[in-house]
Fold this protein.
Amino acid sequence: MSFKITGTITVLIAFVLSLAVLMNYAKFERTFNNLTESRLAFLVQDLRDTLEFGLDLGLDPAAMANTAAILTREAAQDPHILSISVFNEQGDILHQYQSELLSHDPVAPLASIWLQTVLQTTSKTPQHASDLETLMVGIPLINNFGRTVGGLVLRYDRSFYDQELQQTLFRLIRAALLILVAASLIALLGVWLLFRGTRRELRQISVALEDFLENRRTSALSRNGDSVLAALETAAELKSREFQQRLVQAARILCLEQRLAGQARHGKAYSSEGIQ
Amino acid sequence: MTASSRFTQLFALTLGLIIVALVGISLYAAVALEKSLMPQLDRKMLTVGAAVNAKLERALRYEIPLKSLPGVADFFGTVLAADADLAYLALTRQDGAILYQYGTSLPRPEQLAQATAAILQKSPASQGAASVDPARKSWPVQTLAARPLGDFYNLALPLKSGETVAGVLHIGADADFVVQKVQEMLFDIATVFVIAILVAFELLLLIVHHYLITPINRLEVVLRYVAEGDLSHTLPVPRDATGWLARLLNQLVERLNAAYQQILRQAAYLQSVTPAAANRLSNNLEQLWRGFTLAPEGRLTPYQPADLFGARVATFLFIFAAELSQPFLPLYARIYATDLANPPSTLLISLPLTIFTLTAALTMPLAGWRFERVGSSRTFAEGALLMTLGLVGTGLAFSFYDLLGWRALTAMGYAFMYVACQSYVVANALPRQQARSSALFVSGLMAATICGPAIGGILADHIGYTATFGCAAILASGSGIMAFRLLRTAPMPKLLPRQSMRGMIRAMAGNGRFMLLMLFAAIPAKLLLNGFLFFLVPLTLSNFGDSRSEIGRIAMIYGLAALFLGPVFARLADRFVLHGLLVGAGGLLTGFGLIPVFFFPTTTGVLIGVLLLGIGQAMSISSQLALVTNIGRASIEQFGQGPVLGGYRLIERLGGAVGPLVAASFTTAFGYPGAITLFGMLGVLTATVFSFSFLILGIEPEADDELPPLEPQEA
């Protein structure tokens, strides 16, 4: 019984902890994602402002010679930036920064549909997307006549991002499991202590009943039962004893009747012999 | 120590452990989240700081003095407006004096001065490189990290002008950034705690009753039987602490019965051998057996009363499963309805809910028929199977039309399970404990009404709709397995003779008070419940921008009010005979609670409406039932309580099915807040008609009303 009750309590605590872990992790994921996305968005917006300054001066995006240096300088802020690409209206890459990480571990090229999505965006809000390997932030480049002349896409290492999320989830699960184990042990101890009296009482009553069944003791009255169950057991034992006595009496009556029947048969035989 | 005090202690122990576990994991999460999020915040502050610094340095390169730069504070404002995570931007001179600053909250000037001095002390020049030009050497990266500064995390970035440091840019974020994020979950954590308490109560009640209280009660009953001389019962032998005692008690009873049977056999033999002594022998033995009851022909009867707590937990689990989708079902239906019409009409969105309620209402008689034939455990298991399939199908539906089909299947399962549990309780409760047993069933149901929406909302927010329907399906199948174990001990109910259904309908329709009660209290109550709580609340709150967790929490308030206030109002109604008054007042309260939503279309307005709906329904539900039994006494005497109450339930459920349709048509014309207000007005109108009608007519017919028509006196 203690194990079943402890098991139930453990299931309950596991339910509570799993919900808590789920909520905390979801909150963490959302906050982490927001922080990362807003940082990358700020970076991209800052780059866009710099590049649009050149466009406002009437420069052709392809002819802006310092773009590569600007991209390199911005990318230097974070080693997990894999690439920053500037492309024209047709989606052709004009300038690109590529991290050294890509030479060891190349990623899939940018999908042209994603570049089109960025180019078709009318707002100045950065667009976010992700694939299996990278997080992507893109923004269109708009000249001072309000025409989209190209775009800018930053790709960020997703493995770093996923690793952070996994580590936090792992930490939360580990902590929850430790709390669960500790709580289960406390529950087991608590339940054991709580139901110790009941178990002892049941054992005592069982022993008493077993003694009675094995004829090991004579009087039920000699025992003190302070619970309803013990009192009932004593009463039941007394009543059973009474019934046993009735059974003995019944056996005696049967015996007597048997003897009488035997005598009667014998007497009958004797008298019939006499008549003969 | 009594069993109830042990249960209280066990419950307290469990609650303590749940609190400790929740506090423990929340504190740990706060630390873990801080550890992971702070470097991200740092990076972001550095990114923003570097960009702002670059712009300022560009201005300084044109040799504009720092103190004369125009619009710096406005520029800071623009940067901060785009980013809610940052608290302030400030620019100080080398001596720490503030030149420009902007932010929702700012550190004290002396704190900024300290931070300025601290960063300048760590400059490359001050770190043993005095001979080297500080402007040409970059700041060590480790110095460019955010540091705690009063209530903030502050990142100080030196601002270079040519070869000198012109000032220091400070970027700040709230030091409680992570704590705030954890605090945003406090409502969710509190919800989980409330639900954990209810689930703990239900499960512990079941476990303690199943493994301790019920076996001990059984032992006590059979021991009492033996003590009173009744030796005809045995006990089931469980594999727990009571098992040994039960086995010994069975041995005792079996042994005594065996000895008795042996005596009877010997006596029978003797009587056949000596017929002359037969009478004397039988008289003597009969005298001996007087005061004892033994098993007829030695066949002992197992004493195994029904486990009503099993029915309660089964009810709790399947209602929990059904209610999981309550806070988002209209939102889910809207996704599918969008495929048919964009934007979809509210009437289309209301259809899955209407189909569910209607199918459930119409399946109840079929479920009752099934219960009479195969018993509660099989009916429940069949219902669980239907519901599981329905929920899985709902989660994976391809189109709006098959969604309707899956909802109908779920409703059929719901009806089967509902009838199986309710009928089990009614069939197995002792006559003097009928009300208590019904309360047991209703409490399980209400507890699930609280837990389901709240957890459903949280799950839908975090794991999505399909996975939440999957969880509901698991719960439904789990309840089926549990009920198959727990409800199968019940004896098969006796088939009742079929009453004339037409006669009953005619009698009920001819009862004016009954019809008034149905039209102006029972039907409006369910109409408001289904139309407002299940349909309008999710859509309106979603329209207000509330998350599904918030919708679930608000829906939970209805259950909380009904669970805790229902018994109080029921007791008050019984004690002071206030049934009619409470039905009327409950209806009025519900109506008045909904009317203000049009004028105050906010989440709080809806929340107050839900709360007053809960209180109003708590006032009227049990009183309505009492009124039905009172008003329909004649029909109950003629047709039985079951059919009459079944008819009443069917009528109010049909009213419930209409609720979403009415709500949808109101919404089309007046929008969500307008529809809620119209619902409130409808509630007030019907409650007023009900109250006036019963004030005039009274609950029971006057003696004069029942006088037979005068017949001509015989001369």
Notes: Strands of chain A lie at 81-88, 93-98, 127-130, 134-142, 148-157. Chain A has two domains: 2-166, 202-275.
